[in-house]
Specification:
- The protein has 16 helices and 21 strands.
- With 531 residues, it is an alpha+beta fold.
- It has a domain at 277-500: Dipeptide-binding Protein, Domain 3 (Dipeptide-binding Protein, domain 3), CATH 3.10.105.
- Strands 14-18-13-17-15-16 form a six-stranded mixed beta sheet.
- A hairpin with a 5-residue loop joins strand 2 (65-67) and strand 3.
- The longest helix has 18 residues, at 474-491.
């Protein structure tokens, strides 16, 4: 049975069909310089989903599929996929003649190893994405058969190069996956080969002359530049020194200005439809001042989400109303929850804390805390400053801490050495893929980035998360996720702030880079420069 029929039958997500890329009057050659902000901590996208890695990794590594802006699956390393009637057997037919950048052939053994020994074990989201995969058969070098314990149609939305990069078995087998040399000397099958990493300045990728897609890539070289200063990044875009900037590398206010003032600079919100980004606060629920859910609910109640969007992100986005993005309303999974006022209610938050016995001292302070901020630029610093101010109005005095990316990641996800942390997560195309990792007890994985750092654990919620993964009936699944959202609105281990709508700023001479739903996290194999 083909995928589209199965997906309609289970009614768990929109039907997926295969799509093709647009055809351009392209020209070859040239170098594409674009912004990568901040500098990535590693190039191991199979271990960490840190945003800057995604900007470069999918140019080097391929996935089995890509997705266009309409959600259609586009064959990449897999030419086709079939699913059994019961949804428990998924067969990928791999592309022939593909080689790794070191010349070794890409085979079904690489897919089997990537899923079973890498993604299911060390990737932040892989344990959920591929949870139902019990074993993988490789009857020949170009056929991969996934055997599932239960149907998992959401898995088919997790096969891009960013989400599930295929990695070389011959270079990782027998190695400690998290510390293997491949992390900073990547070898993939993608359109560009890793050439050089000059710390603090750039990463350079050169054209893969042996790429499996005939005539691709068009561009000779890609350079990801690291520019710490926000105004310098905007200036580099304005002067044409860089041609592309995504994920707020150029702030929204500067992006809108450049779009108005420069005929050769444009902006788009396309390229994020598979990402579903959500700004949020993570709390340490095991120790420190935020172990009481009442305090966490009061913080959520006090914050003016609309003010943050309007003043910091130039109006792009929507206030969060639940643990789930409102984008899931289309599949019946989202519901509005209490303690999520769009404009904040400081008086109500103060009353909640008063009623819970948290008294203010003579300086009006109930408690003190350290507030860590995601080190991804000025917008997040300003967001932290606003939250610091509003928390002061309810008697919570916080000190802001802003560190480099490796130090921040180690503090939050390795050492749990934090009290509250401003961050954003991708909720992706289904809650199983992007939301469950926040809250499941099985996702308390010390040393793994962007999972359950709050160490929140609730056996009842765990059972509901498990049921939500397996339930094929749309109405029943909606009921499950309604209960999940009710529990999380009560316990609040994570406070969602707002649904981000990122802007991509680009020079109009860059063509062919906008057809993938992965946006900046796509391969750029079809991109070219029009002189």
């Amino acid at each position: 049975m083909k995928i589209t029929k199965f997906m309609n039958a289970v009614m768990m997500t929109a039907a997926i069909t295969f799509g093709g890329g647009a055809v351009y009057a392209q020209q070859s050659g040239g170098s594409l310089v674009f912004l990568v902000q901040p500098e990535p901590p590693t190039m191991a996208g199979y271990v960490s989903t840190s945003g800057p890695i995604g900007l470069l990794g999918p140019k080097i590594y391929d996935g089995l599929f890509d997705y266009d802006n309409d959600g259609k699956m586009i064959p990449v390393l897999a030419e086709s996929v079939d699913m059994s009637e019961d949804g428990k057997t998924v067969t990928f037919n791999l592309r022939k003649g593909v080689t790794w950048h070191d010349g070794e052939p890409f085979t079904s053994a690489d897919v089997q190893f990537t899923i079973m020994d890498v993604l299911k074990k060390v990737h932040p989201r892989g344990p959920n994405s591929f949870k139902e995969v019990s074993s993988i058969d490789t009857p020949d070098a170009h056929t991969v058969v996934l055997n599932l314990d239960n149907p998992a149609p959401y898995m088919l939305r997790a096969l891009s190069a960013y989400e599930s990069p295929m990695v070389p078995k011959h270079l990782l087998e027998g190695e400690d996956i998290k510390s293997a040399k491949l992390a900073n000397n990547p070898v993939g099958t993608g359109p560009f080969k890793f050439t050089e990493w000059k710390k603090g300045q750039y990463i350079r990728l050169d054209k893969n002359e042996s790429y499996w897609k005939e005539g691709r890539p068009y561009i000779d070289r890609i350079v990801g530049r690291f520019i710490p200063d926000a105004s310098t990044r905007a200036s580099a875009m304005e002067k044409g020194e860089v041609l592309y900037a995504a994920y707020n590398a150029v702030s929204n206010v500067e992006a809108v200005r450049l779009n108005k003032e420069k005929d050769n600079i444009s902006i788009t919100t396309d390229g994020y439809s598979m990402i579903n980004p959500m700004a949020l606060i993570e709390f340490n629920t095991k120790e420190g001042p935020f172990t009481d859910a009442v305090v966490r609910r009061a913080i959520s109640t006090a914050i003016d989400r609309q003010f943050m969007l309007d003043t910091i992100f130039f109006g792009y986005g929507n206030p969060a109303t639940s643990a789930l993005s409102s984008n899931f309303a289309a599949t019946g999974l989202h519901a509005k929850m209490p303690h999520y006022p769009a404009n904040g209610d400081v008086a109500a938050a103060n009353k909640m804390l008063d009623d819970a016995g948290y008294k203010k001292d003579s300086d009006g302070v109930r408690m003190k805390a350290m507030f860590d901020l995601i080190p991804y630029g000025e917008d997040w610093k300003r967001g932290g400053q606003y939250i610091q101010q509003v928390l002061g109005e309810i008697g919570i005095q916080v000190e802001l801490r802003y560190e480099d990316v490796p130090t921040w990641l180690k503090r939050i996800y390795h050492n749990y050495d934090f009290e509250m942390n401003l961050n954003y997560f991708y909720q992706l195309a289904d809650p199983v893929l992007g939301v469950h990792r926040h809250y499941g007890t099985n996702m308390i994985r010390k040393g793994t980035h962007f999972v359950n750092s709050s160490r929140y654990s609730n056996a009842g919620l765990d059972a509901l998360l498990g049921a939500g993964m397996k339930e094929p009936n749309a109405e029943s699944r909606s009921a499950i996720y309604l209960e999940i959202q009710n529990i999380l609105a009560r316990d609040m281990p994570v406070v969602n702030l707002f649904e981000l709508e990122f802007l991509t700023v680009y020079n109009t001479k860059l063509k062919g880079a906008y057809g993938s739903a992965m946006g900046a996290y796509s391969s750029f194999g079809d991109a070219y420069l029009e002189e």
